[in-house]
Amino acid sequence: MSSETPSVGSIGQVCHATKESAVAVKRLAASELELAGAAMMRAALLATLATACAASAAIMLMILLVALLIWAGLTWPAAAGVATVISLVSAWFFATRARSMLRHCGMSATRRQLMAMMAFNAETSTP
Hints:
Layout: H1 8-70, H2 76-102, H3 108-125
Helix pairs in contact: 1-2, 1-3
C-alpha cells in the first residue's frame, strides 16, 4: 500500500478550478434570475390584459344585447354569442402568451449546469 501525498500544486489547481466553477454558476444563476424577473413582468402585463378582456366581455355583452334588441336585425342570443366568442378568443390569446413567458422562470440552464457538475464530481470521486 503506497501512501502518496498529493502535491501542493494539484490541490491549489483543484481549489482554483472549484472557485472558478462556483463563480461561473453564480453568474449563470444571476443572469437567469434577471431573465426570470423580466419574464414575470411581461407575464403580469399579459395576465392583466387577459383580465381586462374578460372583464370587458360582460360590458360588451350588455351593450350588444341592448343595441340588438332595439335594432331588430339579429336575435339577441346570436349577438351575445358573437361577443362572447370574441372575448374568449382574446382572453385565451393573452393567457397563452402569459403562460409562455412563465416558462422562462424555470432556470433550466442553471439546473442543467449543476446536474452536469454533480455528475462530473460523482465520476471523479469514485475509486
